[in-house]
Amino acid sequence: MNKIPSALLAFRIMAWVTGVVLASATIWALLGYLLWGYADDGGKPGLYSLLWVAHGWLYFAYLIAAVNLAFLLRFPILKTVALLLAGTIPFASFYADFVMHRYVRNLPQTKADTSQ
Amino acid sequence: MRSRNRYLNEFLKPVSIVVALLLVGVCVLFFFLGKWQWDRTQNILNAERAAAAAVIPAPDVLGPDLDPSDFGRTVVARGFYDESHVARIGNRLSGGGDNANAGQWIVNDFELDTGEHVAVLRGWVPSDGSYSTPSGEVELRAIVQPNEAFYEGSNQRNGVYAVIDSAVFSSEWGVALSDGFLVVESEFPASPDAPKVVPPTIQTAEVAFPLQNFFYAIQWWIFALFAVALYVRWIMVSGRQKEIR
Fold this sequence. Notes:
The complex is a heterodimer of chains A (116) and B (245).
Chain A: H1 4-34, H2 46-72, H3 77-85, H4 92-105, H5 108-115
Helix pairs in contact in A: 1-2, 1-4, 2-3
Chain B: H1 2-12, H2 14-53, E1 56-57, E2 74-94, E3 101-112, E4 117-126, E5 138-145, E6 156-157, E7 160-161, H3 166-173, E8 177-188, H4 211-244
Parallel strand pairs in B: 1-2, 2-7, 4-8
Antiparallel strand pairs in B: 2-3, 2-5, 3-4, 5-8, 6-7
């Protein structure tokens, strides 16, 4: 049984969800600190903090999905670590999603699977 | 036996040892990052509690809408009691258990020297009992409480009220009272025959919990555990692949 397509789907979903939350939180932080005075104590709204907390937990789900995929694809450790770190850098997870999607699509094994 | 050797061999490879050393470094780093967020959580809580416990001037918190985070705060208020604006709250006990005495609470209109009015619960007296009210300027040390209005509608019977509701007293006395009321802790100068001071219903002011720092602390520690799990699985997978080859 080929587990790679479902692992890729889980990773792609998590890459997008984590990526969108991280990108929104980053843009919000930039606007907040530059324009809305978030550097002052107590200036931040509750939803802003909640978004960062949400990213922390979503990133954990991203880690599990990414590790699962990396092991199925037999990635070396450095490549795995790079994939994991992509969830912490704003907008990097979108690129990781693009790269992984292309990588899996070009695998001879998956090609054979989809042609069946 | 063979499989144990296989994993041991994998673990003793130079690259595995380098990764293991990096792993230890990452775990130490993540532990201290987590501890840093944990300490920040405690510091923020302590600072918030200290701020909430500090005695502040009553005009800073009083107004048409009390902030729920101010419930239970200790304030100082300077001003005068208006003896013509008094409400008795019926069916209130003093003390507890078998020693409880039935009686009433005395709520008085208090005009602060800033001109604001607030309902002040001075304390307990026996039913229809007498008490004295200071006529000159008084300084109160009191605790902020929300209105007792649990239900709608009139709560007055024969001049005795059921609950403390500043909105009802406002219309009754014709003054704009602050939201909520104050429970007297002490009056200065103390009057000789003052009502017996009662404990406030809400004892402590609530402080906002720094959820973000708290979760970050836990997440750093989970990430450290995750890194260890990742390493162990990597050793096992590499060992297994060796055998397949």
